[in-house]
Amino acid sequence: MTSPLIRFALAASLALSAAPALAQTSLSDSQILQGLQGLTDSAPTMTAQQMRNMVQQHMSQYPGEALTRPSLALNLDKLPQINVQIQFRLNSSIIEPSSYGTLGSIADAMHNPVLHGYKFVVTGNTDVTGPRDFNLKLSQARADAVVNALVTVFNVNASRLEAVGLGEEVLLDPKKPTDPINRRVQIFTIGRMGPPPQPIR
Amino acid sequence: MRGFRILLAAGLLAASAVAAEAQTMSYGQAGALLAKSCGPDINKLCPTVNLGNGALKACMDSKISQVSQKCQADYAMAIASIAKRDAAQDAIAHICNADAARLCPGMIPQDGNLLSCLLQATKVVSASCNQAITDAGYR
Known about the structure:
The complex is a heterodimer of chains A (about 200) and B (about 140). With about 200 residues, chain A is α+β, with helices and mostly antiparallel strands. Chain A has one domain: CATH 3.30.1330.60. In chain A, about 35% of the residues lie in helices and about 15% in strands. Chain A has a four-stranded mixed beta sheet with strand order 1-4-2-3, with helices on both faces. In chain A, β2, α5 and β3 form a beta-alpha-beta unit. The longest helix of chain A is centred in the C-terminal third of the chain and has 21 residues. Chain A is globular. Chain B has one domain. Chain B has seven helices and no strands. The interface between A and B is large, with 44 and 43 residues.
């Protein structure tokens, strides 16, 4: 049994494996644009607040050891999404300069007319190393840092973005909860901006 | 979306003769330039400061005498380029308004279909609109 999310991740890593080692941590511009487009009416509606609630509920429902509890399934496979590896300094929300280009590429996609009418949730995820509460705060601070950079440096409209820290609750590879692969920023396309546009006259 | 990319590719071919000048850097290129030219200085001088909210710029400015000439020049270029790209993208709606009304009437502009329409019609789109699309990096 492989969840659709894992299969998505596998497909993504397979797609990248042909490229040089550097590409393992960076999606191409077209992969970012493609990953974030195509939101359909049948996709589930999800808000940043709902995600936060799910995390809180999961944490109180499964207070046990990290290695014994299940990974939280957000069931957002139907939403357009990308997993990006943004490099942060150790135990900090400071984005490494090596990831500035990736942030810019995400902004390029969000400024593309194909995505112009959409809003997004930027989530931060850690692996299960370290205290659970610390990881929740760290992941929120990291998601905030990404959103701040997109808004204040790369001019993405702030009303299109929300940051959600998912802590160590949503693992990319639940079988390897301590694997660094679980540390990632995930971006979801969650809905349209404002009322539908008027026809061109 | 394949159709859109084919349209884009077709538009690119048609447009390459129209306007090769005044292209702006993409946001990704600007970020990569900043990382390449300023990464070492940032890691050395401002390692605990984040990129957003003007914090990094303020920190680097406060230590400007220790910042390499290359970084100073390219940091300014990256910021200027981002502003130029942003302005070019904002300007399209206004500059291409008449072309859109003439060439894409009745279209509900969403998901990039208006751009596809204008790219498809490149040969009959006004020079200023074609230039605006180029400057915005939408080819």
